[in-house]
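Field: COMPLEX_INPUT
Field: COMPONENT_COUNT = four
Field: RESIDUE_TOTAL = 640
Field: MODE = joint
Values follow.
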Amino acid sequence: MKKPQLPPTEAISSHPGLKTTTDNWFEYPIRVYPHHTDYAGRVWHGTYLTWMEAARVECLLSNGIDFAELVNLGCDLPVIDLAIRYHQPLALGMNAIVKTRMKEITGVRIHWDYKIQSLDTEQTYVTARVTLVAIDRDKGKILRQLPPGVKTVLSQLQKG
Amino acid sequence: MKKPQLPPTEAISSHPGLKTTTDNWFEYPIRVYPHHTDYAGRVWHGTYLTWMEAARVECLLSNGIDFAELVNLGCDLPVIDLAIRYHQPLALGMNAIVKTRMKEITGVRIHWDYKIQSLDTEQTYVTARVTLVAIDRDKGKILRQLPPGVKTVLSQLQKG
Amino acid sequence: MKKPQLPPTEAISSHPGLKTTTDNWFEYPIRVYPHHTDYAGRVWHGTYLTWMEAARVECLLSNGIDFAELVNLGCDLPVIDLAIRYHQPLALGMNAIVKTRMKEITGVRIHWDYKIQSLDTEQTYVTARVTLVAIDRDKGKILRQLPPGVKTVLSQLQKG
Amino acid sequence: MKKPQLPPTEAISSHPGLKTTTDNWFEYPIRVYPHHTDYAGRVWHGTYLTWMEAARVECLLSNGIDFAELVNLGCDLPVIDLAIRYHQPLALGMNAIVKTRMKEITGVRIHWDYKIQSLDTEQTYVTARVTLVAIDRDKGKILRQLPPGVKTVLSQLQKG
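Field: COMPLEX_OUTPUT
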């Protein structure tokens, strides 16, 4: 594997709805479009995973880790474990905030927490946990350690 | 809510790959098409949820419960909890079997187990648990009990 | 059908990347996430339809038409015709602008033009045309005319 | 690019619903699951593209062309043009047949026709055209000619 080096650390994203709150949640706003819904007029249960992925990629990017660049350098971060609880449904046209927070790193496993809430935080629609693992794309094997740049950034995220 | 009655109990599906094994797993065969994959050439982690849903609907149908009919009668069965573990990736063009089994009913909650395996059962790609809850579509509320016909069928599934 | 009335005309959306250019294209920015891609590392050809829908819904909303509200009032606008040409592929991590413009109304048919371009407009990735038709949700039939409020707004869009 | 050679010509698929009719349409049966639908209880307009792709891959496979193998050999067949007309909607739980037929080859462009119909062929839900182009994956460029094995098979398909 080519040695993955940390992409430039300046935040690239200027998407205005994105921000990090004082309690360290990264916020990614969404709106429910027709293709997100199912026959019930509610968000289909698998759709949330697309938003959770988008929030995670944007969170990393806003902290200087360009996911596409990481992949090109030979490091991938597939999901190996996911648990999601559906508290209240989101319906067509509704707005919500996908909140994500890197919880901890155990070796090359990266654990993320999620909650999807109404804009006023009164309603919680979904809570979830996702675990990623760092793998060497060429060898198709789990890395023995995180690429240094990635580890530095994630450690800082962890501290808040 | 209109009283949901059990749809005719003859199995409607004649999809030939579908069958129930002696240990009570319902089997739904899949092949990986381009739209199932992501940049890594592997199945994107959310794609598995579409297959799990398809297997569940076909399992119910082969036991005489037509999901669309149930919905028309006013009863919905949304997913309220889901946990999935990714053991080995499936890649473009690969075949696999999605196995599902109704595990237990607790009130109006229906618990399903899943494993996605290679045709020879040597490889396990994914294991998962999914919980559904029965709701009254008109009222948008959780039902106090399962519609009688549904309960009868599911109880039989449970016994194996 | 309940008579669809025009939702309040103030623009509700405050998504900062959204804007209308002088030549009347509504602009909806996107970034390519893993779930948008396929095995080739490029955007899967069907993914573009989700972005085109999102751009259309946001364009309507920014002009005072809340699509979810319209649906609740009994008017739906399903796609009845779509043509899309793929000029250059978008790859994982890339940014682009989905541009949409209401082209013309013929009776209850609404025609939209699309182009998906690089931020600097040097590259055109996709061009497309989409036709919607207004239907009465209760009757499941094509409306004889557009709801008055919708027609007024769309006519203004058409004028630029 | 490694020279793509024709995969073994015996038909690999044994999916029982798949067959080729006397007028040369390849038939791929589908059933509408919840994740295929949108708020209207109908199939979301982009879902049809997943079925059209599945039908195309199965049609090629039943004629001895394993798409995944072709990709591994360095030849890709991305969609470059697509037009689709929605005649009647499919709803949750409905069954239909996706029919596809290789229409003609013009250089390295492969044109396919589609119609999605009810089992009794009384209803036509969708008609569509899709054009693929053969590209060299390594160079990212359009091939000057189709890989010989592929050309032979497709020419036979064309003759019917």
